[in-house]
Design brief:
Largest sheet of chain B: 6 strands, mixed
CATH architecture of the largest domain in chain B: 3-Layer(aba) Sandwich
Strand order of the largest sheet of chain A: 1-2
Number of strands of chain B: 10
Radius of gyration of chain A: 22 Å
Radius of gyration of chain B: 18 Å
CATH architecture of chain A: Orthogonal Bundle
CATH class of chain A: Mainly Alpha
Strand content of chain B: 15-25%
Number of helices of chain A: 13
Structural class of chain A: mainly alpha
Number of helices of chain B: 10
Oligomer: heterodimer
CATH superfamily of the largest domain in chain B: P-loop containing nucleotide triphosphate hydrolases
Largest sheet of chain A: 2 strands, antiparallel
Helix content of chain B: 25-40%
Helix content of chain A: 55-70%
CATH topology of the largest domain in chain B: Rossmann fold
Distance between the termini of chain A: 16 Å
Strand content of chain A: under 5%
Number of strands of chain A: 2
């Protein structure tokens, strides 16, 4: 014992605010209430205030971001039940074309056209995908990808629904501000609705199916019917995004099936952290504006974008949201060893 | 015992390629019976369980449950009729807390019909069931993620999940494999209690000593064929069984 060496290490302690289950909290002070409310209220306030202060161009980007966020939320819902989608664009395009065609050919008001677009897209999406709900993992993913690649080719070669020229004119929203708020509202309803859904027993069954579908079957639950229900909900959300975008641009064309609408939602959910929905939203809120602001770089835009994405996946594989949530729920202090 | 059989398996056959997994197996189960299925490794025990519960479709043969044919029906339909099973290799919902694993069967149409029940209440039912099986209510165990529990707990969790379905017939596929001796004893007495309250049990097991203590009747499989059936003691004295099974086993 010549000299006493003092070493320190960081100690991490979970805040003991959770009781028994993830959804039950022990609240003993206003600080605890703030601690719980702030991370929920602040993003909501930010989403509600942003449309008022953003300049014209960026408010357009913001609306587009909301649509990608909706697709990412829909992707995350499918992932929660074990269905991995590479073809969110197919759902997006279904809603876009149904709503656009109804407005273009039959002059339905856009509100009604969007509503029919949602239900039509949801029905179409769940019908087309229901034969393959028995497929798992990458096999299901490939089918969705093919669906999104096949649809524009059908429209192009048969020249229906405007063919390669697309459909125009299509009624625009009366006010951009109102439209933006509709988009934000849809994102918030989906986010909190999905989070609630996944915390209910209904969501527990979904996660159980993802973990082990055979064990769920032996518990007497029809997993295929549950998967079709999830497909219906996810398709409805994806179709809303498509229908909304159609009336936001006043145009619908084959670009609604472009790979962007499949890859961006997937990248958002992975970057933000899958399984929480808030992660998917976080990811979209980062990726889409980032991709827009990189336009200044010109041709190297995609390269920069990819480098950022790769760095995120390598250094934060759990996703941004999971990382932040973990840090938020932990004290960190230095203790003597 | 009198009356119609609860489960009737008739000439069930399943081949995997050239391998005969189950060949021409017939037997009956009467309500309230406790029947064991034994046999050397690879003798078709698990395949037989999978055939009855619908996870594998038979090449030929029929399964009747309460006089109704259930051959080749979907596993969830068969489970809905009241046939619950456990898995030899634990199949659990590792990203859910242990008690939520038990909530899943409580969400099934069968249990909803049997007991009604709203959200929130199911958690309590699940925790009660787990408490009875040694997952103490006031400990952290029932609330831990299933993926982080030790193996013995997982096996018992699987059993609780099967019981939660309120089955009339419980099929246990090597429940005791990988369990500690103390766990085996307590779990066995729980199963005995279920059996005494009227539950029919079909138990595939390698631990003969434990099985023979509780089983009324034993069916012996070898290379997919039924080679003997009867009271445990009588069966084990049969020449064919001795050759096929105990001839190579150290203990008996």
């Amino acid at each position: 014992m010549a000299e006493e060496k003092i070493t320190y290490r960081r100690e991490r302690i979970d805040r003991g605010i959770k009781a028994r289950a993830d959804t039950i909290f022990v609240i003993s002070s206003y600080r605890d209430i703030l601690y719980l409310l702030l991370p929920r209220v602040l993003p909501v306030v930010a989403l509600l205030v942003l449309p008022l202060i953003l300049p014209y161009y960026w408010s357009k980007v913001f609306t587009h971001t909301c649509m990608i966020a909706l697709l990412a939320l829909s992707w995350d819902l499918l992932a929660s039940i074990g269905l991995v989608s590479f073809g969110q664009a197919a759902l997006f395009g279904a809603g876009a074309y149904i709503s656009g065609a109804l407005n273009h050919y039959f002059h339905l008001p856009y509100g009604l056209a969007i509503l029919i677009g949602i239900f039509g897209g949801a029905t179409l999406g769940s019908l087309l995908l229901s034969p393959v709900v028995r497929l798992k993992g990458v096999y299901f993913a490939i089918f969705t990808l093919i669906l999104s690649l096949l649809s524009p080719r059908i429209i192009e070669s048969t020249d229906i629904l405007g063919g390669s020229h697309g459909l125009a004119p299509i009624a625009l929203f009366g006010s951009d501000l109102v439209a933006t708020y509709v988009a934000v509202g849809a994102v918030l309803v989906c986010l909190f609705g999905f989070r609630r859904l996944i915390d209910e027993d209904y969501g527990a069954v979904m996660r159980a199916i993802r973990d082990d579908d055979r064990a769920v079957m032996s518990a007497g639950i029809n997993i295929y019917w549950r998967k079709i229900q999830a497909l219906f909900i996810a398709s409805a959300v994806g179709s809303f995004a498509g229908a909304f975008t159609t009336h936001h641009f006043g145009f619908v064309g084959m670009t609604v099936f472009s790979l962007d609408y499949s890859i961006l939602p997937l990248a958002s959910a992975v970057l933000g952290g899958a399984g929480t929905f808030a992660g998917a939203l976080t990811g979209a809120m980062i990726l889409v504006p980032l991709s827009e602001s990189l336009r200044a770089v010109g041709g190297l835009r995609i390269v920069c974008y990819c480098i950022i994405l790769i760095a995120a996946v390598v250094y934060l594989p759990e996703g941004i949201f999971h990382y932040i949530a973990r840090k938020y729920h932990q004290f960190e202090r230095v203790v003597k060893v | 015992m009198e009356g119609k059989p609860l489960l009737k398996v008739e000439r069930l056959t399943k081949h995997f390629g050239g391998v005969v997994a189950v060949h021409d197996v017939s037997f009956e189960l009467r309500a309230g019976e406790f029947v064991g299925i034994i046999g050397p490794n690879g003798s078709g025990k698990t395949t037989l369980v999978n055939l009855i519960t619908g996870f594998v479709k038979p090449d030929s043969g029929d399964v009747f449950y309460r006089g109704k044919e259930i051959t080749g029906k979907m596993p969830y339909t068969i489970a809905g009729h009241g046939i619950a099973r456990t898995f030899q290799m634990v199949r659990l919902f590792h990203s859910l807390p242990a008690f939520k694993n038990v909530v899943i069967p409580l969400c099934s149409p069968r249990v909803k019909k049997l007991r009604g029940g709203k959200y929130g209440e199911r958690d309590d039912v699940a925790i009660d069931l787990l408490h009875d099986m040694g997952f103490e209510r006031d400990s952290f165990v029932p609330y831990k993620m299933a993926g982080s529990l030790p193996h013995g707990y997982l096996k018992r969790l699987d059993l609780v999940r099967a019981i939660a379905l309120r089955p009339d017939l419980l099929i246990l596929d090597e429940l005791f494999s990988g369990m500690a001796m103390s766990e085996v004893a307590s779990t066995l007495s729980m199963i005995e209690k279920f059996s005494e309250s009227g539950l029919t049990v079909l138990m595939v097991e390698h631990r003969l000593k434990e099985l023979f203590r509780v089983a009324n009747r034993v069916i012996v499989l070898n290379f997919g064929q039924k080679i003997a059936e009867g009271f445990p003691k009588e069966v084990m004295e049969g020449e064919a069984v001795k050759n096929a099974y105990l001839g190579t086993a150290e203990e008996g």
